[in-house]
Amino acid sequence: MTAPFRLFLSFLFVLDLGSTLAEAETGQAGWLRYARLDGATVQRMQRDVPRSIATFESAAPVQKAREELVSGLRGLADLDLKLTDQLPPDGAIVAGTLTRLRQASAGLLPTGTLPPDGFWLKTSTVNGARFLVIAGESERAVLYGTFALLRKVATGDSVAAIDEKDAPYAPIRWVNEWNNIDGSIERGYGGRSIFWEGGHIREDLGRVNEYGRLLASIGINGISINNVNANPRVLSPEFVPEVARVADVLRPWGVRVALAIDFGSPQSLGKLPTYDPLDPSVIAWWKARVDDLYKAIPDFGGCVLKADSEGRVGPSTYGRTHADAANVVARALAPHGGVIFYRGFVYDHHMDWNNPKNDRARAAYDNFHPLDGQFDANAIVQIKHGPIDFQVREPASPLFGALERTNQAIELQITQEYMGQARHSVFLPPMWKETLDFDMHVGPGGSSPVKALVAGKTFRRPLGGFVGVSNVGLNPNWYGNHLSQANLYGFGRLAWNPDLTSARIIDEWTRLTFGSDPGVVRTVTAIQLASWRTYENYTGPLGLQNLTDIVGNHYGVAVEASERNGWGQWHRADDKGVGMDRTVATGTGYIGQYAPAVAKSYESVATCPDDLLLFMHHVPYTHRLHSGKTVIQYLYDSHYEGAAAVEQFLHDWDSLNGRVDAERFDEIRTQLDYQVGQSIVWRDAVTRWFHRASSVADAKNRVDHYPGRLEAESATLNGYVVKDVTPWETASGDKAVECSAPSCIATFRFAGGAGRYDVTIRYFDVNTGAARFRVRVGDRTLAEWTAADRVPSRRLDGSSSSRHVVREVSLAPGDTILVEGTPDGAETAALDYVEIQPHVDRRH
Ligand code: GCV
Question: How far is CA 759 from CA 372, 419, 684, 756, 805, in A?
């Protein structure tokens, strides 16, 4: 071998070794990347996995399973499987329905059955040959078994000798997509719809196919593809063939398609004089539309209905009940095997804030408990996990314990509406598990976790389960944040088995998504597991609910936005105390909706958990928590802890540089860096607001004291003008400066000692332009950037508050820092402050 050729070969070798890290990864494959395992694991898998795959069924899910095994094992373990429809004498992977496999060879599996959608993974020896059997109770269960086997391989589990049966906890494992037919998504943060565009189903359904694959891999078996704020047009005859195309793409993945419907459709679309659910013409209309759908989509899943809620029409127009409304559609669906999900999210959004007895949290129970037993067998009441609306912490909805003769499903929100809209990383399974594991103390035996109630186990209901509001979009990484994918994964895994721990789920997800480098696994799982508590700490602790812009974008901080309006997300903070009195004794009586054992613990401040204290009680700021801390000091401390924790996430992530592919490393770094900045806005806004309201000083003297901070309104301004910011707490010193000229300069004088500093420029980046900024010290340009982010705000507020940090700047006493802003469109290059902090070297 010549020297240059040897060099060439070693170059190739280096390239190959590095390929898993160097390759750009967009996140589109989610946790199904099938990236090559390490050498030792590859060798082990090559030893333990047979070299052919035998299938005997032409059904699409079984064929998909075969394709997945071929590509998965090739990618993970460099195995090239031979395809066969016979049992080869030298062994094989065998995948199929249990019935068909038994026909193929009695020796593959011992006797035994499988529950609905269950699978069996088993190594067997027949005539001296090794078989790795994947048997499914149904065709789609063959896929579930296949993905379970691939998960084992991908996480390095041994497959040398397996005998495992697994089955889902509940029959309903659905996602809802709040997609509008114009292609926009209500509360979607990952781009436009993968289903719809311009009033029609998209031509290219490639992403739908990829999504179906992701859903099948976590056991999801149904999907509604349009917004629950439904456009009646989805039921029009010309839409049926379009919806059928989506069903065709998802059917091979075992996912049934459904539609959200508008209750007024018989009138608005059908041109009937009424939509009264008891009117014979309306009954006939629903039947005809549903029959028509089933002609084109024989396995159509059913419908989701939001009625009498947030402006949607409903049965109240005619004095009919929610059961009447659900049943008229249920009866049209029943002959075809379809189901209707009737949403329990019904409340009055015009309630009088001045009436202390009014309480939105009561609504679901008050509306649906009296109707228990009146819903048809194929109707399911779909209940949000808490009584309000996906807040950062809520108790379990009391309605879960109040339906004994009605099917129910829990609605969890995967999309991060109130959870930082995918700009903040928040891993939600720990929150969901608190609800799922919560004992409602109802039913036979008196012990009933929410998961058992919704799955129909407690009251022996025929249907029930889990619905996740997913809202994926065309963004290559689906949600706009790589780390947010873990929420979809976690939802599916919990819907399959709610007894899984969050730690197990995130460990799996991390290994599948980033590989099994121990440092990566340790760091990513630690960030994810701490992220919900962290987010809660800086956005709404102690059961306050999210202190966000309730009447606007549900994103940035706005402490009073929830008050003095009819929406009912009230916290009732005033100058003496804070919290909603929901007690039976003196409050709204909400607590009385729980079974006595639960109600008793919530009713008294002595036993109410601190985490829900302000959800259940109104207390003075000086009230002492179980920890001994006062409420007000807890509010201060938790916000500082939350912001500090996010900063630590960023440093921890930085330690993974070079151990995660560059593209995802950079994108996650940018996201976490942004989150650090936002957590500081939240921290300062909430603590300042409560400081002003309560007049109680922070024992640690942090609130309203910001060393190194120079307010823009106190700088020397050239062209900039001072502006009051609303809400006041979202700008430091309550004010900002806006540029009212073609370009403006704010000059800040540095009064500290000579040294190296990090300089933070806090500015506002609204979504109506792309202003330019330049920072100089004397004639040294430190940084230049364009404020081109698209945060959901056109105003100067907590949502648009952004920061740019220039690190390791040498400054001397008397230096002047000039920030030059050039407005663009309606964006005024607004500034809040400059903060100068000694630089700390955090390199490890
Ligand atoms: C689809 C909240 C959200 C709405 C959503 C509604 C619902 O109010 O902000 O966007 O509407 O819940 O779940 O119906």
Answer: 61, 29, 18, 10, 6
Six token digits for residue 86: 């016979």
Determine the pLDDT at residue 18: 36
CA distance 133 to 138: 15
- pLDDT tens column, 476-485: 999 999 999 9
Q: Is the pLDDT of residue 7 over 90?
A: no
Pocket test for ligand 1, best of 177, 178, 469 (most atoms within 8 A of CB): 178
For residue 375 the two structure tokens come to 């819903």
User: Per-residue pLDDT for 499 more than 90?
Assistant: yes
Position 274 pLDDT exceeds 70:
yes
| Residue indicated by tokens 């891993």 | 427
Nearest CA to ligand 1 atom 8: 389
Q: How far is the CA of 363 from the centre of ligand 1 (A)?
A: 15
Alpha carbon distance 365, 42 (integer Å): 54
Q: Counting every residue, how long is the chain?
A: 844
Hey, which of 187, 226, 231, 388 would you mutate to test ligand 1's pocket, going by the most ligand atoms within 8 Å of its Cβ?
A: 187
Q: What is the CA radius of gyration of the chain?
A: 29
Q: Using CA atoms, how far apart are residues 25 and 49, in angstroms rounded to an integer? A: 28
Write phi, then psi, for 728 (nearest 5 degrees).
-60, -30
Residue 164: count of CB within 10 angstroms of its CB = 12
- The span from the CA of 594 to the CA of 609, in Å, is 15
**Helices and strands, number each (H, E), in the chain:** 20, 29
pTM of the model: 0.96
pLDDT at 539 over 50: yes
210 is catalytic: no
For residues 597 and 445, give the distance between their C-alpha atoms in angstroms, rounded to a whole number. Answer: 13
The answer to whether the CB of 553 is under 6 A from ligand 1 is no
Greatest extent of the chain over all pairs of C-alpha atoms, in Å: 91
| SS3 of the chain: helix, strand, coil, percent, to 5 | 35, 20, 45
Average pLDDT (715-725) is 98
Helix (H) or strand (E) holding 831: strand 831-838
Q: Is there an atom of ligand 1 within 6 Å of 389 CB?
A: yes
Is residue 390 in contact with ligand 1, taking CB distance under 6 Å? Answer: no
Distance CA 379, CA 373 (A): 11
pLDDT at 841 over 90: no
69-124 residue pLDDT tens: 999 999 999 999 999 999 999 999 999 999 999 999 999 999 999 999 999 999 99
Given the residues 85, 310, 666, 784, select the one marked as catalytic. Answer: 310
pLDDT in tens, 787-818: 999 899 999 999 999 999 999 999 999 999 99
Q: Hey, whose CA ends up nearest to atom 11 of ligand 1?
A: 229
Which residue's C-alpha comes closest to atom 13 of ligand 1?
345
Is the CB of 228 inside a 6 Å radius of any atom of ligand 1? yes
Residue 388, helix vs strand vs coil: coil
pLDDT at 19 over 70: no
Task: Please work out whether the CB of residue 233 comes within 6 Å of at least one atom of ligand 1.
Answer: no
Q: Which two tokens stand for residue 289?
A: 């539309």
Residue 171 DSSP label: S
Question: Residues 476, 192: contact at Cβ < 8 Å?
Answer: no
| Cα 226 to ligand 1 centroid, rounded to whole Å | 13
pLDDT of 20 higher than 80: no
